[in-house]
Amino acid sequence: MDDSFFHSQVRTVWWEEDEADGRAQIGLLDQSLLPQQVVIMHLQHEQQVADAIASLKVRGAPVIGVTAAFGVALAAARLLAERQAVQRELTLAELSEHVHEVSQLLCRTRPTAVNLFWATERMQRCLQQVARTSMPVQQLVALLQEEAQAIAAEDVQACWQMGMYGAELIADGDTLLTHCNAGALATTGIGTALAPIYVAARSGKNLHVLVDETRPVLQGARLTAWELQQEGIPLTLITDNMAGHFMRQGNIRSIFVGADRIAANGDVANKIGTYSLAVLAHAHQIPLYVVAPCSTIDLSLPSGDQIPIEQRKPEEVTTLYGTSIAPAGVAVANPAFDVTPHPYISAIITEKGIVRPPYRENLRELDTEH
Ligand SMILES: CSC[C@H]1O[C@H](OP(=O)(O)O)[C@H](O)[C@@H]1O
User: Fold this and answer.
1) Looking at the predicted complex, does its ipTM rise above 0.95?
2) Is the distance from the beta carbon of residue 270 to the nearest atom of ligand 1 less than 6 Å?
3) 3 pLDDT exceeds 80?
4) Right CATH for 160-364 from 3.30.1360.30, 3.40.50.10470, 3.10.20.540, 3.40.50.1460
5) Residues that bind substrate, according to the entry (predicted)?
6) C-alpha angle 280/284/288, rounded to 5°?
């Protein structure tokens, strides 16, 4: 497969330099405005990066990991530039402390997606490893940038591999269901859950995708529908509460979803509503596949019960595009994710292959970095 395989020009996040003064910055597609507007942001401070992640301008587990890595590299470059401007030395100890503090800042934005923690830990490890070599601090800052670029490049590669493995599970003529957005917009590559769909479609299989709208913030309706449309993949948008109806009618061959964190026993935290889908799928004997890179696997947690679930603001539920849809003062719950117990998961597709039960043993053999 060559680069022309993927038609869309979707780019989620990248490293760049300001045209005017050559300052390091991060280019980022503002996903909160899609599909109505395609707006590119240019971030020059780590606080802007943290705000972009917290406000879902960039969202999806793999790409928030990449964004956090770029954020750490940006913070290091910014501190060095500040010191150079006043001709003050930046010591290794100061750089290390700054990188640690910025990692903590970025990790406070979204607690469930483990990729954020994985990426910032990897950035800190990179600094610790080379620090012993007494390398000049300018070179350490450049190395952090290279490490972030490597994380992004590995994500692109992982998406391809997940796509190739997952496509084997899709047959010509299948109708598939997906939830939220686990496509190109959630990664720096062709996506996680949507990657097998793209690979299968490009290999000539005729497919149809049912897309859950995914309340409360509509990643399915706004992002997945937009992304699939750009790629020319036939789709039908449905509201979340229609999924059971279509399963019962026998219209759905399999379900592909992403993941924000996978525990050692194979329990999966993913966008709220995934658990309900999984139970329905089980009742209708429809396979549910989770597609995620190894950076989403957290072997330090024995089960999904230990996965922290992000609670988001009530306004995401009580309003739609700024318009109130509920009575003022109503009590609201807004967990962003739920946990699907592993017995409901038919297979977990990673860049290293397809993992089937028993998950505890088979995930351990994958050689993840956690
Ligand atoms: C490829 S992971 C995408 C993953 O991210 C989503 O959450 P959010 O939009 O809140 O970042 C959701 O859980 C998707 O499955």
Assistant:
1) yes
2) yes
3) no
4) 3.40.50.10470
5) 59-61, 110, 219, 270-271
6) 65
